[in-house]
Amino acid sequence: MTPTIFLFARLIAVFFVLWAIGQHSHNYYVFLRWFIFLTAAWGAYRAYRDLRREWLFILMHLALAVLFNPILPFTFQKSTWTILNLISAWVLLISVSVLDPEPLEKFIGTTIGNAVRAVLAVGWGVGLILVGALLIYSAMDRILNGWWLWKNAQQTQAQIMTVVHRVEFVESETRAGYVHSYDVKYSFDLEGQHFSGTASLSDNPVTEDIDEEDEITPATPTYLDVQYQSNNPHNNRAIGEGSISAEVLPAFLALALGLWPTVAGVNILRKRLFKI
């Protein structure tokens, strides 16, 4: 892949990953995973070949390749993917200027260009710190919520408000087939206060048959066992949604990933602003 083709591939990848924030068919997300995975993998190779000491850029591309890998795809909530897509677009844009700087070199050589580079360097450092802080905050919030539910959860019944039937084709090296899931919205009352939550279940929790992508409200009151944090019932989950450990382990990975951009951002600002 020539530098010019790779340059356009990353710019197209930025468009695709931002476009993915909206609602699209499953095939679009399969295509997106392959495109970002291949682009990021090549970017990791380019960063290793051309920037052997800049491990930050190598790790950034490897992180993108792992995140969007189509073999063992990660599954997150839509809100989480929105944040990850924005971060991915930012990383790809930074990659353009770092791995293929030729179009910028003439401009950077001017007085205005030097000022712009200084501003961009500070912005890069601040951006790294914000990304790292966001990852750390989200990870710690998820870890603490999971710990509370594991140690001190109370149990009650919640009424199912709506159910949506999702069907996704999953393919790996060992199997391929359709996976059915049921996105549930539920609510419950405690001491005169109203609380709600969502869950993704593998079995249909209501008696009605639900066609693919249909959303229904149960004809008769239907209930779901949930557990909640006694001093913060907003932290709740449906029993049977999956093990808490399986939900918390990715949070530890996000916590680790959040540390290195934070440290890198602090070092950039320290060198640029304080000259130390």
What report would you give on this structure?
- This protein is an alpha+beta fold and about 280 residues long.
- It folds into two domains: about 170 residues, no CATH class; about 100 residues, no CATH class.
- Helices cover about 55% and strands about 20% of the residues.
- It has seven helices and six strands.
- Strands 1, 2, 3, 4, 5 and 6 form a six-stranded antiparallel beta sheet that branches.
- Strand 2 and strand 3 form a beta hairpin.
- Helix 6 runs antiparallel to helix 7.
Give the topology.
Layout: H1 3-19, H2 26-50, H3 55-67, H4 78-99, H5 102-108, H6 111-152, E1 153-171, E2 176-190, E3 193-201, E4 215-216, E5 223-229, E6 232-238, H7 244-273
Antiparallel strand pairs: 1-2, 1-4, 1-5, 2-3, 5-6
Helix pairs in contact: 1-2, 1-4, 2-3, 3-4, 6-7
Produce a short descriptive summary.
By secondary structure, the protein is α+β, with helices and mostly antiparallel strands.
Keywords:
276 residues, alpha+beta, 2 domains, 6 strands
Described by the principal axes of the CA atoms, the overall outline is globular
Report the uncertain regions: none
Question: What is the rounded Rg?
Answer: 23 Å
Note the total helix count: 7
Q: Helicity level, as a percent range? A: 55-70%
Q: Which sequence of SSEs, written as H and E, runs from N to C?
A: HHHHHHEEEEEEH
Q: Can you tell me the number of structural domains?
A: 2
How many strand segments? 6
Question: What is the rounded distance between the termini?
Answer: 39 Å
Described by strand count, sense and barrel closure, the largest sheet is: 6 strands, antiparallel
Strand % is 15-25%
Q: What class do helices, strands and sheet pairing give?
A: alpha+beta
Could you tell me the mean pLDDT? 81
